[in-house]
């Protein structure tokens, strides 16, 4: 069974034949890719190719796949959340009575 098939079983509430590993290596990959410090065999790989090479599954969450997150967020009326785009970079700006948080 492929990683995709196992993920689909989990999403459908069915049992997968085994526990499959979904490491959180996205930030490691992007950090090292930007700096040119990825190990040699991964330098020319895209992120999904790296997951395939490691025989692991990507975590299907919103910040890398565009899928809606599994955890909802609610804010008071005093908090405003906006997205800001500068070139190829996208930021989330959270305005609070105590100040601004940019991620």
Task: Summarize this entry quickly.
The chain has four helices and three strands, in the order ααααβββ. It has helices at 3-11, 26-35, 47-54, 62-65; strands at 80-86, 89-96, 99-102.
List the helices and strands and how they pair.
Blueprint: H1 3-11, H2 26-35, H3 47-54, H4 62-65, E1 80-86, E2 89-96, E3 99-102
Antiparallel strand pairs: 1-2, 2-3
Structure report:
The structure is a single chain. This protein is an alpha+beta fold. It has 2 domains: 1-70, no CATH class; 73-103. It has 4 helices and 3 strands, in the order H-H-H-H-E-E-E. The protein has helices at 3-11, 26-35, 47-54, 62-65, and strands spanning 80-86, 89-96, 99-102. The chain has a 3-stranded antiparallel beta sheet with strand order 1-2-3, with no helix packed on it. It is flat, with a radius of gyration of 18 Å. The protein starts with a helix and ends with a strand.
Task: Fill in the keyword field for this structure.
flat, 4 helices, alpha+beta, three-stranded antiparallel beta sheet, 3 strands, 2 domains, 103 residues
Largest sheet: 3 strands, antiparallel
- Specify Rg, calculated over alpha carbons: 18 Å
The SS-based structural class is alpha+beta
Our count of domains comes out at 2
Would you identify the regions where 5 or more consecutive residues have pLDDT less than 50?
Answer: none
What fraction of the residues are assigned to beta strands by DSSP?
15-25%
One letter per element, helices H and strands E, the order comes to: HHHHEEE
Number of helices: 4
Number of DSSP-assigned strands: 3
Average predicted local confidence, pLDDT: 86
